[in-house]
Design goal:
Largest interface: A-B, 74 and 83 residues
Shape of chain B: globular
Radius of gyration of chain B: 25 Å
Strand order of the largest sheet of chain A: 1-2
Distance between the termini of chain A: 47 Å
Oligomer: heterodimer
Structural class of chain A: mainly alpha
Strand content of chain A: under 5%
Strand order of the largest sheet of chain B: 1-2
Number of domains of chain B: 3
Helix content of chain A: over 70%
Largest sheet of chain B: 2 strands, antiparallel
Shape of chain A: globular
Radius of gyration of chain A: 21 Å
Distance between the termini of chain B: 69 Å
Number of strands of chain A: 4
Number of helices of chain A: 18
Chain lengths: 385, 512
């Protein structure tokens, strides 16, 4: 069935799959957001334990989605994988270290003889929550603002900054850095908002939920400030267009705005996503008793739709999704960075498993989340974190 | 070779070796104990005996502690292909990336979804659903091993692909050939059965400690029965698949095979050096060749092991470097010349394409295709640079084989005495079982050293040497990350061991 699709259609299909994984990842970063709020929302050891366990039953999904995102990017757009990971070395290494320290922290935080002490593992979780969200957001923003690299005729990439990616977040002499950081901080505050909504769904503790509600508004406000700064900027900046016939890359004014207007479905998904995120926050703030528990589903689904639409805007409609501001013609497009047609077809058959995977994840979550987590349950559970 | 940054290559290799070796401390225990736990829980569900539930939970706790650090050390490997081996990622990403993506979609989600049920679902889901989850965790873990091992096997025996000169990379043409190549099938079976064997040693060793201390004797005798039975079956399978793996190495990586056996000069009726010690190289004209200080040989065995024919010719290092017309072996000197021709032809093809000189492009492409199978050799001038570290490969191989054989014996004796209910009196066997945990680890790492050091200098056999595969970054950056990984992983390992020991020492079966 996939054999009948054109090479370009397969490349677009895979960009959509990678975008979907990326958007699910951003939603699942609520785990990271929650890790930065554990000691804000929990004031006693048992309250912190409830929060840690609430997040601890989900952290692996975020982790696995990140790993699958990396694998899918490697399989479908290997030139992006080699250019970005090999070039922006320090950004990715810092992100990876943040995930390494997270992976042991839940399991070890409350175990006897854990050597480093609970506070250290909780600090690891905080670092992961802060660094992973800000840097992943910053890295995604470069899909719109570009990076410094070149690709030679053998398709070997060369990063053109000695800071290997750190310049994307810390070169304050370049305006694009502010756009990058605004998405990084936007993702950070969004993750905190989503975690608050998640706790409202998953935790049954009056004191924690009271504090969570108080923290929702300031975090939502900051998210909106940074996100709108990013969104407005990318709608007005020049973007990286390429000619569908000659494949020559050129700068086009209002490129991303043009993309959204040229792809009304994507525009609708974006608007729907933003509205759903805001609707979830609004309902949690002003109709908490009625539907506070359900708010995460609105804002979560809205997050997936928003990020999905943004990533489609970055890669579709003859747009270079990983642009180079050092050498425009080295910019990566879904056409020049993808795997061969055969590999994309083979991988497309594998992608048919995704709905099945989502179905069993949903079923397993449902089985575990029949009732929200309580302090009492933590005291009785021998495997609690 | 002078234009390659060899310091970068060395540091990149050091980082990959470090992270992979650390990761592999934990992975085999996950692969095998997940099945052992699932078997224990099955017995619980079938018999309704609460002690089996407690046994399951005890080993599950140790599994969880080990699993967390396995995940922590594993994430870097997925991304390291890009961060440190970006040229490799492009050159073979069209083939190598697919198994990694399938691993994520097919295996990691299964593992992470059902592990939550396994740990937290005891009172939330039915017995049947919980048991199914435990089995799915085991299957998911092992599926992830399948895909990464397929990817590794492909690097040792690249099949199912062709080189596309326009994109300057290898592209997949047959997915099934990649998945079911004899090297891939054998590698997967050999690695997982060896992991199961190590896991069985882990369970038996810890159980032995309790029996030495005379604590919770029945509890740990039961654990031992399951682990020894499991270990005996898997260790026998490990030996069978190991034997077949050696034949695959002989077929596709003759230099590695020669290194595994310390065979410098090829011969018919080749004997197998069962035990051997090298002395320093005596020949100034061939400084890398080493003589034996002492050895015990089994006549004709190497020929038989390689080709199932006791009289078969087995090429040595010298035959591969200098060629052997009689046996139809092309020398590395010739292969280097062909490789250089291929590299030049590819450059000519690219230049001609750019200049729109179709005739020259076609002619260059013809030359390129004719010589492509020796492409990687063209990056070298001296054939001796194409020889792996023979003593290291030899000693690693023999350590692995010797310990593997010992483990079979340990399983047989343990099973015999535990069934006869005499195991508590066999203090010597209990101590051996306890010490077999580090020995199992040593055998695991030795196996990977054979596989990875033995194939040097290739990252993709014959096509891509390690020195062309690295990312174009400064070696100082890699040096710093090596240091950071060393510190981080060591700290986490110490924490893991301390927690594990505390759990083991502090355990007392609450069912009494």
């Amino acid at each position: 069935m996939f054999e009948n699709l054109s090479y370009l259609a397969l490349q677009e299909y895979w960009w959509a799959i990678v975008s979907l994984l990326g958007s699910l990842l951003v939603f699942l970063l609520f785990v990271q957001g929650g890790q930065t709020l554990m000691y804000t929302l929990g004031k006693t050891d048992s309250e912190v334990k409830v929060l840690a366990n609430s997040l601890g039953r989900k952290w692996e999904f975020t982790f696995t989605t990140l790993v699958t995102f990396g694998g899918a990017a490697f399989a479908s757009f290997p030139l992006f994988y080699s250019t970005s990971f090999g070039g922006a070395y320090w950004v990715w290494m810092i992100i990876l270290f943040a995930f390494i320290i997270q992976a042991v922290s839940y399991e070890y935080r409350s175990k006897a003889s854990n050597w480093l002490g609970t506070k250290t593992y909780d600090t690891f979780l905080y670092i992961n929550g802060l660094v992973a969200t800000v840097l992943l957001g910053t890295a995604v923003a470069t899909f719109f603002t570009g990076s410094l690299f070149s690709v030679n005729e053998m398709n070997q990439s060369f990063w053109q900054s000695p800071f290997h990616g750190l310049e994307l977040a810390f070169n304050f002499g370049r305006y694009a850095t502010y756009i990058n950081l605004s998405l990084g901080l936007g993702v950070f505050f969004l993750a905190r908002v989503l975690s608050i909504l998640y706790f409202m769904n998953n935790v049954d503790d009056k004191a924690i939920l009271e504090r969570a509600r108080k923290k929702l508004l300031p975090n939502a406000g900051l998210f909106l400030v940074f996100f709108l700064f990013f969104l407005i900027n990318i709608l007005v900046i020049s973007g990286f267009n390429y000619d569908p016939v000659t494949k020559v890359v050129n700068m086009e004014s209002f490129k991303y705005l043009h993309n959204l207007l040229a792809m009304p479905v994507v525009l609708i998904i974006l608007l729907l996503g933003v509205v759903m995120v805001l609707w979830g926050i609004y309902r949690a703030l002003f109709a908490y008793d009625k539907c506070g528990r359900k708010a995460i589903w609105f804002s979560g689904a809205g997050t997936v739709l928003t990020v999905f639409a943004l990533l489609l805007t970055a890669g579709f409609n003859h747009t270079a999704f990983y642009p180079s501001v050092y050498d425009l013609q080295s910019s990566l497009t879904i056409e020049n960075a993808s795997s061969s047609k055969y590999t994309l077809i083979a991988m497309s058959y594998v992608s048919l498993m995704v709905p099945f995977v989502l179905a069993y994840i949903w079923y397993a979550w449902k089985s575990l989340n029949k009732t929200p987590i309580t302090v009492k349950e933590m005291e009785e559970d021998s495997h609690s974190y | 070779m002078e234009h390659f940054n060899l310091a970068l290559v060395d540091w990149s290799r050091a980082q990959f070796a470090l992270t992979a070796l650390y990761h592999w401390i934990f992975v085999p225990i996950t692969l095998g104990t997940s099945f052992i736990i699932a078997i224990m829980e099955t017995i619980y569900v079938k018999t309704g005996d609460e002690m089996w539930k407690r046994i399951t939970k005890f080993w599950m706790t140790l599994f969880g502690i080990n699993f967390a650090i396995g995940v922590a050390t594993g994430i870097i490997l997925e991304f390291e292909f890009g961060t440190n081996w970006s040229n490799y990622s492009w050159f073979v990403g069209d083939i190598f990336g697919a198994p990694l993506a399938i691993e994520g979609i097919m295996a990691f989600f299964m593992e992470s979804t059902f592990i939550a049920i396994m740990f937290f679902g005891w009172n939330k889901v039915s017995k049947g659903f919980h048991l199914t989850s435990s089995w799915l965790v085991a299957i998911g873990s092992n599926l992830s091993a399948l895909w990464i091992l397929v990817a590794n096997a492909w690097m040792q025996d690249p099949v199912g692909m062709h080189f596309n000169p326009d994109t300057a990379r290898n592209e997949m043409v047959d997915f099934w050939q990649v998945l079911f190549s004899p090297t891939a099938v054998n590698k997967f079976l050999h690695v997982i059965t060896s992991a199961y064997t190590y896991s069985a040693l882990f369970v038996i060793g810890i159980s032995a400690w309790y029996l030495i201390k005379k604590r919770d004797v029945i509890f740990f005798k039961r654990s031992m029965v399951v682990a020894a039975t499991f270990g005996l079956i898997t260790s026998l399978m490990m030996i069978i698949t190991g034997d077949e793996s050696a034949r695959q190495v002989y077929r596709v990586q003759p230099m590695k095979f020669a290194a595994m056996e310390g065979l410098y000069y090829g011969q018919t009726n080749a004997p197998l050096v069962a035990i051997g010690i090298f002395e320093k190289a005596p020949n100034p004209n061939n400084p890398k060749a080493k003589e034996w200080a002492a050895k015990i040989e089994i006549p004709n065995m190497l020929s038989y092991m390689a080709a199932l024919n006791p009289h078969a010719f087995v090429p040595g290092v010298h035959d591969l470097v200098h060629g052997n017309k009689e046996q139809g072996i092309v020398s590395y000197y010739d292969r280097i010349a062909r490789g250089k021709t291929a590299i030049q032809a590819l450059a000519d093809y690219k230049a001609a394409k750019k200049a729109k000189d179709t005739e020259k492009a076609d002619a260059s492409l013809t030359v390129f295709k004719k010589n492509y199978k020796d492409f990687g050799y063209g990056y070298y001038d001296d054939p001796h640079d194409l020889i792996p570290n023979v003593p290291l490969t030899f000693y690693s191989f023999h350590t692995m084989v010797g310990l593997g054989t010992l483990f079979v014996l340990i399983f047989i004796l343990t099973l015999y005495y535990v069934v006869k209910n005499k195991i508590s009196n066999m203090k010597w066997l209990l101590y051996i079982a306890l010490w077999s945990i580090p020995l199992g680890f040593l055998a695991q790492e030795a196996g990977w050293m054979v596989a990875e050091f033995g194939r040097q200098p290739w990252v993709v056999q014959d096509y891509m040497p390690t020195l062309t595969a690295v990312s174009n970054i400064d070696h100082t950056s890699v040096m710093i990350t090596v240091l950071l990984f060393t510190i981080t992983f060591t700290v986490l390992l110490i924490a893991e061991i301390k927690i594990m020991l505390k759990q083991i020492k502090g355990f007392k079966d609450g069912g009494h």
